[in-house]
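Sanity check record (used in CI):
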Amino acid sequence: MNADAFFTQRKTCPVCGHEFVATRIRSSFIRVKERMPDFRTIFEGINPLHYQVFVCPACQYAALENRFDQVGNDRLQLRRGLLDAFSAEPDFSGTRTAETALRSFELALRTAQIGGAPASLQAPLNLRAAWIAREMRWDDVDRKYTEAALRLYEAAFGDDRNAKTSAVTLMYLIGELHRQLGQQADAVRWLARAAMHPDVKKEPEIERLVRQQWSRAREENKAGDHEIRTDPAENGAMIASIDGDAAEPAPDQPAASPQQNVDFSSRKRLGPKIRFTVTLYEDEIDWLKRLSSVPYAESKLFMDKESVLRALLDAAMETWPEVRGFSDEAGLRQKFIEAMQTKKPGS
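Expected output for DUF2225 domain-containing protein:
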């Protein structure tokens, strides 16, 4: 390893006041080889990620170099917590192996947890720890930290006002981490939300990644979950491509007669899944988005827009299984309004 690539910097620990030497890498020696969909960068030669965490050898306070001096107000409590957690550790000065680098991130995570850092600050520490574990092909450790990062990013998206990452980027990353963990249905839902976000056009590179990984997650989705795709359409409308269940009555059941209620919630779904395309206006898409976000406030679970549409269709089919007496879209709309108001639409 080229010794000229390194230089040292004296640091003073903001927790205990101890002075120590931190090793840094000269930017001229950093060679990017590849960038991965989860923002991991693969380097040729020296990996600067190994040196991103500064560790005080006296009290074991550890943090990313760009946040090392940002301790917060309760330093005494942090120092006491670090003292209680003190452990035998390797020497973090000089060159670091991948294993030593991983341990530096684990100490940074320990510091963040003791200090009560928000989810938005703990999540990237877990994700970078996963990257280093991946570098060493430690699959179980990689998965452990990826899962932790995903939980924290979801928490940051839900209620962490300290999050500085844009909503579009956060939704994309959550979707991509779901995909990496084999949770393709969740990946598709999160990536679709990112694709439909009104600010996605402001981040063209993220938009490109969203569409690329959304398509990839769909291909990998072996469970047959439902996805939605939106693209610009004429006259301010949006096109939604929906995978829906074919609604066919069971062979041993008679066809429903007019005004007869049918329990569609318990009816067995038969036939293949059918993909069809509908054109919706932006306000209709926005309304579906608002409805699909309601379950999150109640149970922290997301409901995709296809589920909203299916619920509406099933309710309409149960209330009014055979529709007559209209000749155009406006007439049908009026019939449904009458059905919702009276539950006894005219034939």
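The beta strands are 6-12, 19-25, 31-35, 41-44, 53-55, 62-64, 228-232, 237-245, 273-281. If this sentence no longer matches the regenerated tokens, the check is flagged for review.
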